[in-house]
From TrEMBL:
This is Serine palmitoyltransferase. Its main location: endoplasmic reticulum. The gene is LOC102580157. It comes from Solanum tuberosum (Potato). Pfam families: Aminotran_1_2. Keywords: Lipid metabolism, Membrane, Pyridoxal phosphate, Sphingolipid metabolism, Transferase, Transmembrane, Transmembrane helix.
């Protein structure tokens, strides 16, 4: 997925080869024996280069320079930035790339403390804890929050890190229909009565888990309705904002800000730094008591090396830019740009006759392909024209709901987007995936 310098990036060819290989392995699995092996050409992403002094043959990945429509680099911070980069370099010189220690064993620097304060303040919660990886934030912290005797009610399309964390917790897991508050209420009613005090329930704890923007659907969470139901039934809300924090909301504060939800009504706010902030790691923000408890009992805090100081500095600096604390209006411009870019791109794709999932303002927009047999052609034809898109199919989606997933960035210029639209339109015609009549062009 690479960096997104001005919206362009080196992309490794072979995404479709990987996908097809996986599909083949699945087909083999289903029948319990190999049906046939994939042609060798599908593995030709690794290419032999000319020999070096006639002694060793170097192998390298074939790389092509493409317009990157697959990166989560929503605000364009994953490229050199005039405010962030010098500060990151300074912290690298001061603290080096790693603390080589867990947080409680000397791995806490002043940058870590500043980061936690900065994140808590940004997302609108009293306190926060950070970890070195977004995936681990869900998979390792959920089992600390809830265990045997607890009940997790999870959106059916929640990310794998949530699924893993929920399974690892030992709690009972129930799933509600994706982003459907009425079904969430139905599932809740099957397990507790409305108004039943927490102490009189057969469950030690109940947590409802949702995402701010669903990464395979591009949809915004029906958060106001979900929060109202959770309040009514007195259950906790856990919100994963991996794709929404920094990317949506007037000041980049995510779906609560965008949809007018009071952050006091969301008990556990989770997010990652790998998207809008151009860094790595994840956070949980909540009450002081909750964060204190996690700091003393979460294995990912006690036993894992702390987040790299330069990565932490990148997040602090990016948040300062977003909030205008760098003394410029670049942050506000980035936020306006991602919104304009996303809404422009989505409406142009729809006018062309594509079926595009998701909501306005969401930078994630899946184009429905449906037929899994068309995925490789779609991706390959886009790549041939130097546009890289992420293709998603089984098992990440149901077999016949294959799609190409576009991620829009504030780093894309209008010219970039026009080039991409022209290519996608051409490839859409070639592959026959424009399922709606195109709108007539204005004269
Ligand atoms: N939560 C969600 C909703 C995600 O989409 C992802 C990954 N894209 C993660 C958590 C894991 O984050 P990371 O890639 O930063 O480890």
């Amino acid at each position: 997925r690479g960096n997104n310098l001005q919206g362009y990036a080196p992309i490794c060819l072979g995404l479709e080869d990987f996908y097809i290989r996986r599909l083949y392995l699945r087909i083999q699995d289903c029948f319990g024996r190999p049906i046939c092996s994939p042609p060798d050409a599908w593995f030709d992403v690794v290419e032999r280069l000319s020999n070096d002094n006639n002694k060793t043959l170097k192998r390298t990945t074939k790389v092509s320079r493409c317009l990157n429509l697959g990166s989560y680099n929503y605000l364009g911070f994953a490229a050199s930035d005039e405010y962030c980069t010098p500060r990151v370099i300074e912290s690298l010189k001061k603290y080096s790339a790693s603390t080589c220690s867990a947080r409680v064993d000397g791995g806490t620097t002043s940058i870590h403390m500043e980061l936690e304060d900065c994140v808590a303040n940004f997302v609108g919660k009293p306190a926060a804890i950070v970890t070195g990886m977004g995936y681990v934030t869900n998979s390792a912290i959920l089992p600390v929050l809830i265990g045997k005797g607890g009940l997790i009610i999870s959106d059916s399309l929640n990310h794998n890190s949530i699924v893993n964390g929920a399974r690892g917790s030992g709690a009972t897991i129930r799933v509600f229909q994706h982003n459907t508050p009425s079904h969430l209420e139905k599932v809740l009613r099957e397990h507790i009565a409305e108004g039943q005090p927490r102490t009189h329930r057969p469950w030690k704890k109940i947590i409802v888990i949702v995402e701010g923007i669903y990464s395979m659907e591009g949809e915004l969470c029906q958060l106001p309705e979900i929060v109202a139901i959770c309040k009514k039934y007195k259950v906790y809300v856990y919100l994963d904002e991996a794709h929404s924090i920094g990317a949506v909301g007037k000041s980049g504060r995510g779906v609560c800000e965008l949809l007018g939800v009071d952050t006091a009504d969301v008990d556990i706010m989770m997010g990652t730094f790998t998207k809008s902030f151009g860094s790595c790691g994840g956070y949980i923000a909540g009450s002081k008591e909750l964060i204190e408890y996690l700091k003393y009992s979460c294995p990912a805090h006690l036993y894992a090396t702390s987040i790299s100081p330069p990565a932490a500095q990148q997040i602090i600096s990016a948040i300062k830019v977003i909030l205008g604390e760098d003394g410029t209006s670049r942050g506000a411009q980035k936020l306006a740009r991602i919104r304009e870019n996303s809404n422009f791109f989505r409406s142009e794709l729809q006018k062309m006759g594509f079926e595009v999932l998701g909501d306005n303002d969401s930078p994630v927009m899946p184009i429905m392909i449906y037929n899994p047999g068309k995925i490789p052609a779609f991706s390959r034809e886009c790549l041939k024209r130097n546009v890289a898109v992420v293709i998603v199919g089984f098992p990440a989606t149901p077999l016949l709901l294959a799609r190409a997933r576009i991620c829009i960035s504030a780093a894309h210029s209008r010219e970039d987007l026009n080039i991409a639209l022209e290519v996608i339109s051409k490839v859409g015609d070639l592959t026959g995936i424009k399922y709606f009549p195109a709108e007539p062009q204005k004269q």
